Amino acid sequence: MFAIGEFARLAGVSVKTLRYWDEQGLLKPARTDAATGYRKYGAAQLSRLNRILVLKELGFALSQIEKLLEDGVSAAEMQGMLRLRRAEQEDRLREENLRLRAIEQRISDISREGEGLDVVLKETAPGYVVRVKDRLESYEEIARLYPLVYGQLGMRAAAGIPIAVWHCGAEQKDEIVGEAGVVLEEAVAVAAPVECVALPVVHCASLVHRGSFEQFAGVYNRFSRWIEEAGLEINGPCRELYLKIGNPVRGDDESYVTEMQIPVEKRA
Amino acid sequence: MFAIGEFARLAGVSVKTLRYWDEQGLLKPARTDAATGYRKYGAAQLSRLNRILVLKELGFALSQIEKLLEDGVSAAEMQGMLRLRRAEQEDRLREENLRLRAIEQRISDISREGEGLDVVLKETAPGYVVRVKDRLESYEEIARLYPLVYGQLGMRAAAGIPIAVWHCGAEQKDEIVGEAGVVLEEAVAVAAPVECVALPVVHCASLVHRGSFEQFAGVYNRFSRWIEEAGLEINGPCRELYLKIGNPVRGDDESYVTEMQIPVEKRA
DNA sequence: TCTTGACTCTCCCGTGGGGGGAGGGTTTGA
DNA sequence: TCAAACCCTCCCCCCACGGGAGAGTCAAGA
């Protein structure tokens, strides 16, 4: 019979841990003195303790270990749990690997550019867009389309966020097709050429840019390089959400806030 | 200005998270209504939020992120933090990899043997051993040595754990050199041929065996195979701690409990 | 037999990053 | 004017213990 401290030293675990395992019913002492509460462990319990340690190192939670230690768990069932655990562990390993590569990407990004690009991967929020779509000669020409949208929406436009969607990917090489619109939470009825459609929810890379439109070309440049380096691939039209629009007359360019969303998927 | 719910949807985080970050001082709303407590977020805060998300994905804790977001953190300092973080991440990755391999080892162990071997890696507990060392013709012959130890220790032997140490590794191929002893917490004075020396603390693989000595050969077989497969290498004399000794007359072999310790290191 | 110091007990709080829910106030559109 | 949708704070929960307070217990030496 060993006192808790002896047993802990023998096994290489802390006294606190043994008390916790007792409380959780994972490893009860061989005897507990009813009067003093002192725990006494028997040598034979060391094998159970060691099995617990092994299962912990394999990454099982204490509650799972408790089940695995129950009598009546066959070798086949144990195998099943282990295979499940292996799949989880493989996922974790992949994640940790991605994380490491993300860290390295950011280190090299800072080395090159002086600071990192805050690109976040996420799903776009669901919603409806009231928009006009047209072929354009230049990007600036999109300004021509917004009055049509605002003309039909009137007051209701205030509740939405202005958006531009650019179809300038691989499909349309030489021409610029743009949509000017406003994102709303619910659909509304509008007349041609304005349409109201559900904005597809897509997995995208998102970047928030603060500053005027003149810097967009440079930002897109870095952004697409970032996507390339992250092992991703553009798979849809880019969106620009104009979250805040400054007053150009006063020249407070810094008060422009635009979220750029580029739909992406993992490169095959 | 966005209400908390809107802002959360926009950013793809939960309302709870935004409130928590506010409480932690990580991301304060642009305005908080003093009367109602309602939080209002500005579009410009989305870039800070995204930076937080990026740093979180890189594995930084919120407290570290708070420091990294302070003004006055230069690109060089950020680089330093990232390199530190990379080192941590590499360690984690190694650990997760080891864990995965341990899971796979156990799966194959069960497939082959019907059940896994509960081998635990640990440091041996510190202590002193009162022992006699000698060359033996057979393993059983060690029984001859114990009376010398017990003769000198007398009553004090009851406080210790009987141990055998086997020098049968690569150094001594053809001969068996064994030590019979008792492990005590403190040194005592003894006369030759009995000695009292500190038991070196070593990193070892430990296995608790329940059953009589006749099964030892088989257990050692599996044990050393396990060590081999785990990518380890034996680098010292093996120890056997007799934690509980059954009554051979009654034949209750199952009440023998022996801990086998094999000093190991990573194979180069 | 007494003391002393090592050991042990239970109970409570803290960790990190929020999630879940109760109970109550606020806003907004119809 | 009323209901639905939002928002607030406050409190408990997760996991696997660690730290410490305050009190009781045990074994060896004087």
Subunit organisation of the chains? homodimer
The number of helices of chain A is 7
CATH topology tier name of the largest domain in chain A:
Multidrug-efflux Transporter 1 Regulator Bmrr, Chain A
What structural class do you assign from the helix and strand content of chain A? alpha+beta
Total of domains of chain A: 3
The radius of gyration computed from the alpha-carbon positions of chain A, rounded to a whole number of angstroms, is: 30 Å
Q: What's the overall geometry of chain A?
A: elongated
How does this model look, in words?
The structure is a homodimer of 268-residue chains. With 268 residues, chain A is an alpha+beta fold. Chain A has 3 domains: 2-69, Multidrug-efflux Transporter Regulator, Chain: A, Domain 2 (Orthogonal Bundle); 75-116; 119-266, Multidrug-efflux Transporter 1 Regulator Bmrr, Chain A. Chain A has helices at 4-11, 15-23, 45-57, 62-69, 75-113, 146-153, 216-229; strands spanning 2-3, 31-32, 39-41, 119-123, 127-136, 161-167, 176-184, 195-199, 203-210, 232-234, 238-244, 257-266. In chain A, the strands form 2 sheets. In chain A, strands 4, 5, 6, 7, 8, 9, 10, 11 and 12 form a 9-stranded antiparallel beta sheet that branches. Chains A and B meet through helix 3, helix 5, strand 4 and strand 9 of A and helix 3, helix 5, strand 4 and strand 9 of B. Chain A binds a DNA duplex (30 and 30 nucleotides) through residues 3-5, 14-17, 19-21, 24, 36-39, 61-63.
Per-chain topology:
2 copies of one chain form a homodimer.
Chain A: E1 2-3, H1 4-11, H2 15-23, E2 31-32, E3 39-41, H3 45-57, H4 62-69, H5 75-113, E4 119-123, E5 127-136, H6 146-153, E6 161-167, E7 176-184, E8 195-199, E9 203-210, H7 216-229, E10 232-234, E11 238-244, E12 257-266
The structure holds a DNA duplex (30 and 30 nucleotides).
